[in-house]
Design goal:
The protein is about 30% helix and about 25% strand. The chain contains 14 helices and 19 strands. α5 (about 170-185) packs across α8 and α8 packs parallel to α9. The longest helix has 18 residues, at about 225-240. It is globular, with a radius of gyration of 22 Å.
């Protein structure tokens, strides 16, 4: 396969520019851009061998960067149904060319042991490039020292949970100590902000009343308890002098806490996910046990929260849209919670749908084209130390490039998606816009809607620290 490719005639869309340009790819990197039809662009192909791809009428965009996925995650007595092989293949189909997954520290074990286990799962299996965050489940002196070592080797972000007592939960003292460590080593704390202690009381009370259906998952995980935890996390980070990134923000009240902190000049950042923008508590209340398909945490909220999330994305109170891709099959996995919503594995499939859903949001007037690329590609890359290698189309960047047809219509469905899960959270939803061709480091992974990638092409990418911090 030639190491030289020219993509001609497309509209190149990045977070900062939209320009009709030809893109020259050499040896896995973007070598040059030139305005289409100019002598400079003609020189890309004059007397040269290599592949020429016609992108006329299409967008040429950076590969998506999804900084919140959970491949093969153990949860609730089972495992997320996508492996690193199937999950990264599905990511590629959806125009995402880099994921950052979460390695898990088990209580009583070292960070290193957890990280090594996730490297073993991923190495040689990924279709696209990948990095890792570290879930810190057990804060102690040894763990804190290990955090410094991980930052030095490119694992520069650490997730803590204010939810799930007895599993991943950290108390305020443990959170403060980890934040203090990151204030010193340059790491970024990612926070699952829900008051898990209070939620467990509400779960117990609901079940005692016989409220066992999936809809009650959303009703006990109250928006106010997300907002309270978000506020507490922000103030702990302020005390520690550390930056904070709040994951999967779902509630208007939590966005208000982030907006207030950012107005105060704090280094506080927020992410939301497509499920909170496009789905709602109505899905959790679907008849029978269908609502189980939509159980995730933070939970889907009543539809009126969506407008505040969209506004937060437009005003930069929210900076990133990731998926929190954590799929469990309905049959045999979600069904573990029949008769007890608290036993339904928490998570939704979505790594393949994010770029398309956000393009639909552009057509619906929620986002501009450049903001689409900003929240899905450039900002996540900057936030987690991958930019400008990832997240943009510019000389020197990795040639992670998507040719996107903005006019093609498709219907999202489990019958046609490539995620290893037996349902789609967006079944039957019609969207306009579709990935046509995907390059990862210059290699075609999807070619005119045919998969041409391979297991093992994707490599581990060490990361620098957050690029939004002085």
């Amino acid at each position: 396969m030639s190491s030289r490719t020219v993509i001609r005639g497309g509209l190149v869309v990045t977070a900062s520019d939209e320009v009709h340009a030809d893109v020259l790819i050499e040896d896995g990197r973007i070598a040059a851009l030139a305005a289409s039809g100019t002598p400079a662009a003609e020189s890309f192909t004059a007397g040269r061998s290599g592949r020429v791809v016609d992108a006329t009428g299409k967008y040429v965009i950076p590969g998506g960067v999804d900084v919140h996925t959970h491949m093969e995650l153990p949860f609730g007595g089972t495992f997320a149904s996508d492996t690193f092989e199937t999950g990264t293949r599905a990511a590629a189909w959806g125009g995402t060319t880099t994921i950052v997954d979460f390695a898990v520290q088990s209580v009583g074990r070292s960070l290193r042991e957890g990280l090594d286990a996730w490297h073993a799962k991923a190495e040689g299996n990924c279709a696209v490039d990948y990095g890792f965050h570290m879930i810190v489940s057990d804060v102690n002196e040894e763990t804190l020292k290990e955090m410094d070592l991980l930052v030095e080797e490119g694992v520069t972000s650490f997730k803590q949970f204010m939810a799930y007592p007895g599993v991943f939960y950290s108390d305020d003292g443990q959170i403060l100590r980890a934040m203090q460590r990151c204030a010193g080593n340059g790491g970024l704390i990612m926070m699952h902000a829900e008051n898990g202690i209070a939620i467990d009381v509400l779960v117990e009370q609901a079940l005692a009343r016989g409220e066992t259906d999936p809809r009650y998952h959303g009703e006990v995980r109250k928006a106010l308890l997300e907002a309270e935890a978000t506020h507490r996390a922000i103030r702990l980070a302020q005390v520690a002098g550390a930056p904070l990134y709040v994951v999967h923000v779902s509630a208007a009240e939590a966005v208000a806490e982030l907006a207030r902190a950012r107005d105060e000049g704090l280094d506080v950042f927020g992410e939301t996910c497509p499920q909170y923008l496009f789905l709602s508590a109505d899905n959790l209340a679907e008849p029978g046990f269908e609502g189980a398909k939509y159980v995730c945490s933070t939970p889907l909220r009543p539809r009126e929260h969506q407008a505040r999330l969209w506004r937060g994305l437009r005003t930069d109170d929210l900076q990133v849209v990731s998926t929190d891709h954590c799929p469990f099959c309905f049959a045999g996995q979600k069904e573990l919670g029949r008769g007890d919503f608290s036993r339904i594995p928490n998570g939704l499939p979505g790594v393949e749908n994010r770029m398309d859903l956000l393009h639909q949001a552009v057509l619906d007037g929620h986002l501009s084209r450049r903001r689409w690329i900003e929240v899905a590609c450039a900002t996540p890359a900057r936030m987690f130390g991958l930019y400008p290698k990832k997240g943009t189309i510019a000389p020197g960047a990795d040639a992670d490039v998507v040719i996107y047809d903005p006019h093609a219509e498709q219907v999202l469905s489990a019958g046609t998606h490539h995620m290893n899960v037996d349902y789609s959270a967006y079944e039957g939803r019609r969207v306009t816009g579709r990935v046509e061709t995907v390059f990862s480091r210059g290699e075609p992974v999807v070619t005119e809607r045919e998969y041409t990638g391979r297991k093992g092409h994707g490599v581990y990418v060490p990361r620098s620290t957050c690029q939004y911090l002085s």
